[in-house]
Amino acid sequence: MFDLMNLLMQFMLVFAMFIIVLYILSGIGLMGITNKLGQKGSWMAWVPIFNFYLIGKLGFTKIIGWIIVVLIFLGSSYSSTINGVTTTGTILPAPFNAIAGCIFAALLLISIFRIYSKVSEKSIFMMIFTVLSFGLLAPVFLFAIRNNDVR
After folding, report:
1. In terms of pLDDT, which residue wins out, 6 or 116?
2. What is the pLDDT of residue 88?
């Protein structure tokens, strides 16, 4: 029993370190690209919800950035406990929650592709691998192209 728990703890530690490394790569990459494109607010690359806004802003406009942020909250769920009674739910009904999630994913992926296109000639290649990796390679690619010249 303890071997299984030990293995699970080791897996969770490696997973947490992996996520932290991706977050750092994403922050450095977004910050560099923001500065390369001459945009203000490169500090937003390090703040959890603002980094999605920054991706939308760099890919499209500020309005798309705000739409992405709103979709994060509309597609999220909540849980609260009052006097021992736990309530969970979503802000939108289930079908609309799924639609909000799909729109969020589409806007985010299109914004990332547009960022790739602004600073790299290999944007299609990077986008294919971003989608195939379920977005896990996006921070790596953003980090790798942060010093490229604007096209």
Report:
1. 116
2. 80
* Spatial separation of the C-alpha atoms in residues 53 and 79, rounded to whole Å: 25
So what's the pLDDT on residue 114? Answer: 96
| Mean pLDDT value across residues 134-139 | 94
User: Cα–Cα distance between 12 and 36 in angstroms, integer?
Assistant: 36
- The beta strand positions in the chain, using DSSP E, are 77-82, 85-90
pTM, entire model: 0.86
Q: Which residues pair with 81 in a beta bridge?
A: 86
Q: Taking the CA atoms of the chain, what radius of gyration do you get in angstroms?
A: 18
Q: What's 49's DSSP letter?
A: H
Give the per-residue pLDDT at 1: 63
Burial class (CB in 10 A: 0-12, 13-18, 19+), 151: exposed
* Other Cβ atoms within 10 Å of 63 Cβ, number: 10
The set of residues, in sequence order, having a beta carbon less than 8 Å from that of 92 and lying 6+ positions away, is: 74, 75, 100
